[in-house]
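Ticket reopened. Same input as before:
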Amino acid sequence: MKGTSFYSRKLHSLLGIIPLGLFILEHMLTNYSAFEGGKEGFNSSVKFLNDLPLVTFLEIFGIFLPLLYHGVYGLYIAYQARNNVSNYSYGRNIMFMLQRVTGVITFIFVVWHLYTTRFQVTLGNLTHEELGQHMNDILSQPVYFIIYVIGVVAAVFHFSNGLWSFLVSWGITVGPRAQRVSSYICMGVFVLVSLLFILSLVAFTGSEFEAAGLVNLATGMING
Amino acid sequence: MAETTVSSKTVKFIVTRQDKPDAKSYTEEFEVPYRPGMNVISALMEIQRNPKNANGQSTSPVCWESNCLEEVCGACSMVINGKPRQACSALVDKLEQPVRIAPMSTFPVVRDLVIDRSRMFNALKKVKAWIPIDGTYDLGPGPRMAESKRQWAYELSKCMTCGVCLEACPNVNEKTSFIGPAPISQVRLFNAHPTGEMNKDERLDALMEEGGIEGCGNSQNCVRSCPKGIPLTTSIAEMNKATTKHMFKKWLGV
Ligand code: SF4
Ligand code: FES
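Engineering reply: fixed in the latest deploy. New output:
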């Protein structure tokens, strides 16, 4: 392993922004179409994504493998830190700790989220068209709604603060002023993206998605 | 002398002690007669003179290291009331009492407050924190340094390898091999020097080895803790930039 962790850490940092950070933004926009365009809007966004060329290839090399690497290596990084916020309660040190805490929360949340959504599609238990209704089923339960809000906010924080560290680690923001300004921008990103995500979560609880579910269920029953 | 013996005012110290490198640590309390202007070193000297703990039992004198007594050598660094700093510049009047003193546990404890900072000196060797000018003949004067550069480089040269920044860093611990902030800043210093610059790539290569600059997780405790006010996080980011460039240059250059 000698001499390799510089590169593995750099790769970890890069993958967090490209593609994973971009994917978070893309995911936010797709979900947001549920808020803006309702069921139709959401379904057309899902369809648009599934119609992308090489979609399976993109999913594996653009999302799944980077996620696996970033997640597993990230857990190792989190394990290596000896957090000392009680002695050094400085803003950036708190962010350092939160980055690791939200990383672990995000990891657990994403594994569960992938299992209950994308993986069920793979297994054939769910179709892409049923996703909206499926989300409605989940998010109508207050406990799951809260879990989703926590998971999403943690993921967005991890991304936004990670963007700040990325800029430092690649030597883009060097001086204290540059780092301070970029921290304001990154926190702005955090607030904005979290808000849009939460709005879409709320949108999924709307009767529109539920009604569709009932119809599906009804037709399912008639057919059955 | 008469005044001080008359005065019954004392200062309580709670010292984390350890008899041997592999022994378990314990705390012992001391009541030291107050003297105006006293610092932590003078209190430790008082304990050495009269090694009795707060219960009046005689005990072994507390061991510590110090040298310059003016915050330039770094030898007396210890954790005072939770924060690592130099004992010689820690004025008791400005400290909350009882004063808690412990060794900087990031480093191996030799005895009581004496720690072994070899890892820092090894790190300086690893990154070649010097300028090679030895030769078989007189090389003559080197290139001059611009005054504007000298000014910030001088700030970096104030590092006394005290270890406070390593103690404060959450990523310097037994689970990592991270060399810590101080040597990274020294690479910036020596790479800024017009003669030192000639060996710039070797130092960057050293920072890209295991335990090098990638160990930084941006908690920025170092810059808040350094007694010399060294802009450590700027140095680290500057070296992040230099190593990133160096990485691409190596990939594209061969
Ligand atoms: S950089 Fe500052 S805190 Fe770190 S070893 Fe040097 S003087 Fe001490
Ligand atoms: S004795 Fe030199 S820094 Fe305190």
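Chain A is about 85% helix and 0% strand. Chain A touches chain B through 36 residues (CB under 8 Å). Please confirm and we'll close it.
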